Amino acid sequence: MSEITPQVSSRIDQPKVPHGKVVLQAPPELEPSDGVNSLLTMLVPLLGSVSAIVMMVMSNSGLTGFLTGGMFMLSSVGFVLVNGVRQRSQRKANLTSSRREYLAYLAELRKTVRTAAKKQRRAELWNSPTPDSLVAIAQEHVRRWERIPSDDDFLNVRIGSKDEPLCITLEAPELPPLAELDPVSASAAHRFMMAHQNLHDMPCTIDLPEYKRIEILGDADQAQSLARTLICQAAVWHGPEYLKIIVLAAPEQQHAWRWIGEMPHAWSDESKDTALGHGEVMLAGSVEEANRLIGEDILHRSRFTGTGQSTLPHILVIRDGSVPQGDANNSDDDGLVRRGGFDGVTLIDLPEEWGDLEEEHVLRVIFSQSSIEMGLNVVHTSTVNQIEIITSSERVDTCAPDSLSIQEAKAVASRLEQLPSEEENGDNKEQASHAKKSSELADLLGIEDIHHIDLNRLWAYKTGKERLRVPIGLNADTSTTYLDIKESAQYGMGPHGVLVGATGSGKSEVLRTLVLSLALTHSPDQLNFVLIDFKGGATFAGMEGMPHISSIITNLGEEASLVDRMQDALTGEMTRRQELLRKAGNFANVSDYEKARLNGRTDLEPLPALFVVCDEFSELLAAKPDIVDSFVNIGRLGRSLEVHLLIASQRLEEGKLRGLDSHLSYRIGLRTFSASESRVVLGVPDAYTLPSIPGVGYLKPDPSTMIRFRASYVSGAPKGEPDTNPSNFDVAVDQMRRAGGKPAHQVWLPPLNVPNTLDEFFPDLTATAQYGLISPSRRKAGYLSVPVALEDKPKEQKREVLSLDLSGAGGHVAIAGGPLTGKSTFMRTMVASLALTHSPAEVQCYALDLGGGTFAGMEDLQHVAGVALRGDDERVNRMLAEVVSIINARERYFKNHKIDSIGTYRQMRAKGQADDGYGEVFLFIDGWQNFRTEYEDLQAKVLDIVSRGLTFGVHVVISTSRWMDLRANIKDLMGTRLELRLGDPADSEIDRRVAITVPKGMPGRGLAPSKRHILVALPRIDGDHKADSMADGIKDLIAKVNAAWKGPKPPKLRLLPTMLSRNAFLATVPEQTRNSRFVLGVDEADLKPVLFNPVRAPHMYAFGDSRSGKSSFLRLIAQEIERYYDVTGGKAKIFLVDYRRALLDEVNDKYLGQYLTNHEETSQAMNDLAAFLATRIPGSDVTAEQLRRRSWWTGSDAYVLIDDYDLVSTSRGNPIQPIVPLLAQASDIGLHVFLTRRTGGASRSLYDPVLQSFQDLAVTGLLFSGDPNEGQLIGKTKPKPLVPGRVQVVSRDSGTFLAQLAYAPSSLPPMAPMN
Questions:
Q1: Distance between CA atoms of 604 and 970, rounded to whole angstroms?
Q2: Residue 616 designated active-site
Q3: Which end of the chain has fewer CB atoms within 10 angstroms, the N or the C?
């Protein structure tokens, strides 16, 4: 993008909005009636008259007396009536007068309010006029493009009209609680306040930089009209240097946006249209085309954060309809319209369809509709001229939308196309006169042709007066202005200084001029730069690659850790210089060092002076006040170490400098915001009265001298060349880049933004016959040394690979981080790093993935023994059992081979003297918080692994969202702890203050145990740094590692079979073992046979759902009885209780004692059997030898096999009851009971006599698949869903474990199909 020239606001003073508060006078009160007093007043004369009449009548009883009394009476009554009417008329007259005065007061106040309302409306419409006024404003050069970044309403545009509160606050008067007001006046006051409370049709505005996307939802014509309004307003108020507009329109919508081509804001800076004579019109039909038109600089901007001032120019992107990507390799996240947004980019989206609004920094504008409903049906829908403006968190406003036709928009664009002339752009005559006097920097430096700079001459080694003394502009008398940053002892102005200038004063341009002048006159061996800009870095843009540049540090406000990192980098550079001077011979300062180097010390490398320029220093100080200590340190030690400091800011607050101002020698004051700020910098108010001309200011080299000057302008094109050509600055910098030379020492390394791939950590990956694909150099670094991340060491000015040493006490690893912070990627990186440093025979990894299933893609890696995903309970249980069995087996191996430690075992294994079939075993548990919730009963097993694991070469790696999720007994054993970004940094166990600085939204960023920042590498070796193609990278890694391994296959996770054939399984069991036991199946822990000794444990019972394998279990027992007694030569009889006849004819007649199918048969048989077995109870004459050999009786063992016990023991009774008293002595009398029952209702049947006896005798029980809601059925064990034949074995001797029973096929031929 083109370079932005600082401008000064020249806006016409806008109408002022009155402010204040008006408290209305209280309406008049009604005059209270006299009541009784008034009545008495009237009655007293009347009573007197009555008394007189009575006396007259009594004294003169004739006609005369009556006539006189009557007349007296009439006159008295008349007097009373007239007096009453008079008083009432007086009160009414008073009320009318008060009412007339109050209404007159309201009328006068109405004039005042209406005047304020008119001023308010005029002021609002001045800044946000109606759309039909834009054509006239665009025609006037006075107001066009009047807004600049320093204005409060920069990028604030009107979207419609709404009601707005009056600028003057109207308050009701305070009244007594029981006041009786004149209703007419009170009503008038109330109507007055209601009528003037709000102004109608006032502008409704939005701030474009606050939103990454503005969605306009509604009819296509309405949405386009509103979008045209927003575009034209933004273009009229803001110049092309501050605003760029690009339109992405679907093919069918292109015609509606062709008018945009006449608007200079829509001309590309990246591609020129020679036919038009300006940049190509940014009207794109695809994202790919839009990316090309807007340029790479925009696409490299940081993600939208919604905080702080955005990068300029601001980009306004309009997307109308479904726009294709263009290039198939580009995704929506890679282009201009990526969902995360860009800093300084606002997308106005006119989508065809939309969903719920859940994103932050997105504004949705919805055209309202009204519906007419009849019953439950909508019979008519119509559009209302109103829009709702909402965000994901709140409803912002409701207003009537603005609209602009295509013809009106084209009229606005055509008038903006007529760019203003230079005279119209000039500030005043003084600016023109200064322009005539100003000389370019090339002339001041004696450069005849800026395109052919003789750098050999200019870069000749400077000494004495010429060193660090450069021209920067012209004095008021046209003499050259020099800035000399040497210290005063060397007759300079420095070594440190300050530059202050308000917005538009040319501060950034002065800094560019100064840096360029110093760089052109001093070689990289004599002068280096550290350039710091707290904001976006526009001041020092284009200086990258100059050989003088030691570091360009920008955008410090985007990430909290960057300020600390810069502080460490500056401190580290001071320390480096001090160490260099000490090692070179204890030189007192750099000047002595350089003298020695020039006088024959060829062993000394050049030590250039370092010029540290810090722009926007006040904002940096506000973000981190303690940073001033580092600058004070530079001010104190800079003289001897040749480190020069220049701080620049819009304003300077000396109270916050903590003594730094005492080290600032020279001062430069451009135009300031106020006279007081000028006094702070220069001691006089003169800088406040400077003209609004960029670059004009005062230089104060010492307390007694002040020089007015104007700095050279280096951002313009060379003399005689069009403005479209590269600037003087760009031309000069490009030649210095190409001049080459030894680059400056890097003080600041780039922040940890882009993760490395593992091939960058292992540059020497080699396929070997012994180890497969490994890195020999990393392997030499140490056994179980695992590189996983890049560690930032700013104080040492370097970054190093962080390798985890897992060979000792740090062998267990805990990783904590909030959601989407890269925990799963971290663990996969560890697996990949182990695979690239060790062979599959040396390392085996087991992964419990309870997160998003990311480990599933790594299961094919030779080093990965198995992966268990969330919800796969069988694999989870089996994996933990496998790891425990490895520990147990290795413990026995160490004991048998007299191995005292894992270190000894590793040495013996490396020599080929020991091998138990496993190498270093790693158990990864991704998502510990989920593991705690879903597998609470397995935590003890994990604790056992963690406690004993390191002793036998078994390592545990756990990821969790919070440290508090890890219990202390596990966390304390985690020797290596790392943190990614935590949800609450206060939970950090490494350093809370440092944890706050880990940036959000950057997966893989975190803290090492050293409290330094790290960035986890990606688990891939293809050099691709994109996270969205991680799966492809992992596949490539697996393919390469597996292809390089030619050794034997490493052990993999062994699982319980879902179908275990009895005949095939018996063949794998040693003969001696199977001949002395019943062989029932295989256990989960060691995958060894599950054996049953009928002599020691005569009984067994089982619960299970239908089709879970209960009947098959009894068939297996029957066949094992036959096999066992055939081998041992013993005798046995099976009493099969089978009400459902599921086992009919399954028992050989040789062993079948009785087949019982109903209650009566079973009762009779059990009574007979109980009576018979009672004879075997040993008497008092039985010897101990007979008891041991069980030889006091002869005959067959009795096996009672009961299927569906719930059908046997019913309300009719329990036919098995007769043998219950014999269960305890079963081993002595040859009684064996095997019982199965449905799980449903089993918890209620546990008090059945047989089941109760089994529990009392701690008989081995089996739990087939069942409903856990049945509760604890055997001991404390609940049933759970299992595959058929899978059981939980609850044994007094072996505890509870999972096993798969062997499947004994039926001896009956299969049933013929039915016709």
A1: 54
A2: yes
A3: C
